[in-house]
Structures are given as C-alpha cells and as structure tokens.
Amino acid sequence: EAGVAQSPRYKIIEKRQSVAFWCNPISGHATLYWYQQILGQGPKLLIQFQNNGVVDDSQLPKDRFSAERLKGVDSTLKIQPAKLEDSAVYLCASSPQRDTGELFFGEGSRLTVL
Amino acid sequence: GDSVTQMEGPVTLSEEAFLTINCTYTATGYPSLFWYVQYPGEGLQLLLKATKADDKGSNKGFEATYRKETTSFHLEKGSVQVSDSAVYFCALIKRSNYQLIWGAGTKLIIKP
C-alpha cells in the first residue's frame, strides 16, 4: 500500500514570495490533515478535511494560508505572501477515520523563508 | 484546556540501557493516548496507543501504560538499540472534536 506522498521535500523562498505544497493521501482515507511543525515543537494542526469539506481550520492564518482538497483526494496548501516565521516543516497526514487518532504521515515539506 | 507534557530532551543513553520517557496529560474525560515516533529523515508514525485506563500499548519492544490516577503515559523499553534513535511524541485525542493534542517531543540518542 502506498503511503502519503508529499512534494516538494524542500523549498527555499524569500519573504513575500508564494509557495505551494501538494499532498496525496493513502487511497480511501477520508480525512486529510495539514500540520505545521516548527523545530523543537509538536505538530500544530492547520486544517482538517473530511472528504472535500473543511472540518477545522481554526488555526489556519487565513490572511496568508489557503488549502483545498478538490474531489476529496489530493490537497494543496498555499502560503502567500510568506513570512520568516513560516519557516517550518509542513506535514500532511491522512486517516481512514477521524475519531481513532491513528494518522499516517508523509515525510513532510521543509520550507525555509529567507 | 487539554494538554500534554513530555520530558525535555535530548535523552542520551548507551545501547542496551533501560529507557523511560515521561509523559503526563491534562484532559477532560478519558482520552485515548498515543506515542508517535519520527526517525531521522522519515515521517511521523504511530508507535503504540491505549484507549482506556490500565490499558498497555506495546510495539517494537516499547510499552506504555495508561495511568488514570497519575494522568501519565510513560514510554519504556528494556534494552534500547542505536536504531531507536529518534524523536518521540506523546499525544492525546480530544473526545469533543477528535483533534490530536501533541507534546513537544523528546529526542532520543542511543550511543553504541
């Protein structure tokens, strides 16, 4: 079974530029999550989708971050414009059921904002 | 609000030593508890879980027991290997909205 795929693995941009991350979850997983992980901290949930609907985006900085999950499969997270404090690893995870706490993570996309 | 507190790292041990990584939690009700592990260069993966008080989760030689009376879920392993070097995260799931609440992670370094 293929795991969660993310791209790109690494991205370096200058502040005020834009960036997009892509995620393809495990086939059949209805729930998809985007997390932000800053070095030395636990993951912070940015947005959670159930199929193609948003369940929770309360911690997503909506003035600069956006995410979509068209057709309930793969998803894109965009940052525009980027700030220095956005430097982090962006993790995508999926789960067959949102109430189990059992998430399957991709390898992450490391963003460096200069 | 709900929270998870882990011991700070890094924790450095010699191979074959006994490991304990402490985790305590604050939560409404009785959440399920988890340990996730992140090996170098890899994504987070579920290591073990426990869903109710006194449950013991186990996997790959690691164990953790859900202690309601002390609100703890400490991770233990009797004899660590160099390949256990990783960052370990304790987490709970909120019953109200099924969100995972994460600890800050504990980096484990095992020296040969």
Quick take:
The complex is a heterodimer of chains A (114) and B (112). Chain A is an all-beta fold and 114 residues long.
Structural write-up:
The complex is a heterodimer of chains A (114) and B (112). Chain A is mainly beta and 114 residues long. Chain A is 0% helix and 48% strand. Chain A is built from no helices and 11 strands. In chain A, the strands form 2 sheets. In chain A, strands 2, 4, 5, 6, 9, 10 and 11 form a 7-stranded mixed beta sheet that branches. A 4-stranded antiparallel beta sheet of chain A has the order 1-3-8-7, with no helix packed on it. In chain A, strand 5 and strand 6 form a beta hairpin. The termini of chain A are far apart. The mean pLDDT of chain A is 95. Chain B has strands at 3-6, 11-14, 19-21, 23-26, 33-38, 45-50, 56-59, 62-65, 75-77, 86-93, 100-102, 106-111. In chain B, strand 10 (86-93) and strand 11 (100-102) form a beta hairpin. Chain B starts with a strand and ends with a strand. With 112 residues, chain B is mainly beta. Chain A binds chain B through residues 3-4, 40-45, 48, 56, 91, 93, 98-108, and chain B through 4, 32, 34, 41-46, 49, 89, 91-93, 97-100, 102-105.
